[in-house]
Every structure is written in structure tokens, then in C-alpha cells.
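Sanity check

After download, print the first record. It should look like this:
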Amino acid sequence: MEPTYFDTIIIGAGISGISAAHYMQTDCPDKTYTILEGRKNIGGTWDLFRYPGIRSDSDMYTFGFAFKPWTNHKAIAPREDIIAYLEETVREEGIDQHIRFEHKLLNASWSSATANWSLTVVTPGSVDPRLYTCSFLSLCMGYYSYESGYTPVFAGYNDFKGPILHPQKWDEGLDYTGKKIVVIGSGATAMTIIPVLAEKAEHVTMLQRSPTYVVALPVVDKTAVWLNNKLPKKMAYKINRFRNILFQRFSYAFSRSFPGAMKKALRKKMEGRMGEGFDIDKHFAPVYNPWDQRLCVVPNGDLFDAIKNKKASVVTDQIEKFTANGIQLASGEFIAADIIVTATGLNAELFNNVGFEVDGKKVNFSQKVTYKSLMFDGIPNMTYAFGYTNASWTLKCELASRYTCRIINYMSKHGYKQCVPVQNDPDLVLKPFLDFNPGYVMRVIHKLPKMGNKKPWKIEQNYFYDKKMFEKSKLDDGILTYK
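Expected C-alpha cells:
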């Protein structure tokens, strides 16, 4: 079978893939492209996760696309509204006509002789894989395994008689009405699911090994609603987006520069929410500084309300073992449970274990250095989308999409077939890929690429820095090598 060729192939039809497709259409209108999506639907994370209460943990004015105003009054939106927004976007843009569903990438091989990528793709109903080729490869595949979430090994796991669920594989038919539920974990997923479960359950216990920083934000941004009522929708959206970008940047920079002051501010807000008698130091005062890990957002303080109303509680302890009807803790306390939810994180995975080769040599990404947090040294004609850890994921992905188009157009203008970053600075000091230490990152940090200690090899996690770099930096910087 002859391979199918496109100028650019985008892998993944989630938020970053849809963004990449939009900018291919607007910035590279003379180029052909397709999106290969391994699942049956668009949306990526938002199609995969179906647990009760799933919602954005960033405001939708920055989590949404710059080119597509978010007009819903909810600044923090449920999954259903996000999916509707994405479906409307691909339909309006005609992107839906370019998506090939249930096309799962297995291997990608670059040939300098042909200046093309060859992709081996599994498709439904076909015995043999299909072959695709492209001049440029745009990876928009996220950062975790879609196959399963992370669950630690718990002693007595098989002794528990009730259901044990990970939110990534939620049973939508589960009836938890009147049940005693233990949710293990203290991250965004746990704090999202607990208030919703508490509405029907007899009681929900959040069992955490250590605390997380939590801040309440309103579901409806009243300023945004006012601007939407007073100004044209596109203008209001730009203003709302920009002011929220500023707020995200300020809160992060303040946290890193003055961690003690931020701790005090977060604690004061917590005291105002929980009142006297709740042990904030034990349950909501982490030992690490704010933004060493991502702050958790609870819309309208719903988690705090569930705790105050005695529908939910927090236990900070170590698990000794599961038993037939609950969890035995190291302290000697026992928590009775009918259902256990292991909101214990993701299995971080770079590019879903796809095999990559360059001129017949297998790529070991742990030995690679990231260039502008977008490309890798020694890998031609390939970019990847990896969002911010300290702001909305979409902000970074959109910048990456536009920069990819800049490179493609520059190559076309000058007749180049190949573009590859070359790292030959003997004084470059290599550092971990992320200055960020949640469990799902630390479990795989040794497998991830490296970044350098100076630009363009350093990842800044700064939208304004990146915007200037991606939009204004020279494409012939002496590091990007063209042929």
C-alpha cells in the first residue's frame, strides 16, 4: 500500500491539536495537513475523563482559544461545556474534515535522504498498519498514559469487598447513593470529585498522605460578565483573557519571590473559609512552597462547604492496609468504606510510548535537550506542544502552534527541506525538564528530556517571555540548522 502524504501531520485532536490545526489553516494555508487521533472523539483529556464533577482547573478565558471567544458565563467550566466548545470550534473552522479518528501512531521514523517522516499507524478493521508520510510532524499528545492512571501498591488491596475505582476509569453506572466513600489523594482530581460525591453519599473522606495548597475561586467571574454585557464579544474576551494572564503571572511570580507571604495569604483565606476548630496546619498547610506543585482551585469553595456541612472530612495519615470493609491507617485509626476511589495521579508518559527513529537510530528522549521548549536537539522537522505548569495549558500550546507555522513558512520561503536544532555549547549545564515536583513528574523525571541553564535551551514557564521569543526571535539563530 502506498503511503498517504501530507505536508504536516498533527498527532492528537485535543485542545493543543485543535489549536495546531487552526493555525495551520490560517498561517500556512497553502500546506496540506491532517490530524491523526487514536480515540473515537475529539477532546483528549476531556473525552477520556468521565468522573463526577470533572471541570477545568484554570479559568476558561485563558484555557479557551485566543481565536474563539469563551462566551459561557462560567469561568470554571464542567467537562460537558468544554466538549461543546471544542466541538463547535472544529465544526466552525472545518477542522473536523481533517481528523482521522481511531488512527493510533505506533512508530515515527525520519529519513534525511527523503526529508520526510514515515508514520506507522494502527487503524480499526485493518490487519496491517497504514503508512503516512509528512514533511513536518506536530506532536499534540499530552503528557500521560491514556491506558491507566497511577495507583500505588496498597497492602490488602484485594481484601476490600467493595468497588475500587481510579477516576481515569470511572464506572458511570456506579450508584454511590448513601455510601461511605474514601477518596485517596489530595490533588485537583480528589478536590473536584469529593463535593459532587458528597451530594449523594452518606459521607466522603478525603484521605491524604500530605496536604496541598487550595484556593477558592468564583465559578462566575462578575467582571467578565460585566465586560461581556458592555463590549463586543471579541473585545471583551481579549480583555478578560489578558487580565487573567496577568493575574496568573503575578500570583506565580509573587509566590516564587515571596513564598512566606503567599503562605500567609493562603492561610488567611483558608481561616476565613473554615472558621475555628478546623486543623488547617494538619490538613491544608503543605511543607513545600506555593507553586512547587500546582495550586488546587475549588469553585465557590465547594470542597470547604462539604467539609463544614459534615458531608465530607479530611484525614491526613498513612495507609497501613486495606481491609474487607475499609482502610486501616498507620496511626491506628480505621476508616469504614463501601467504595474506595484512588485519586492517586497519572502515569506520566512522553508521547504515549511511540517509538521514534532518526535515520535508523532509535531516539532516547532522556538524552535530548529541549530547544525553546518546542523542539529537541538532533530531531528534524518536529515540534511538540507542552503547556504551562503554572498557568493555563492552552496559552503555551497556542504559542507553539504559531511558532511551528513560522518555521514551516520560513523553510518554504528559502527552499529548505530540513530544520534541526543543534546543541554544541560545551558550557551548557543540563537540568531537569521541569522545575516542578508533583508525584507524577518525579516518578518519571529520569525518563524525560533535559533543559539547559540558558536560552534557548531553558524553559522559563513565563507566558510573556515565551510570547516575545516565539513571535519575535530570529529563525536563523545559528542553532536551528537548515538544509
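If your output differs, re-run the checksum step. Summary of this record's structure: The first helix runs from residue 15 to 27.
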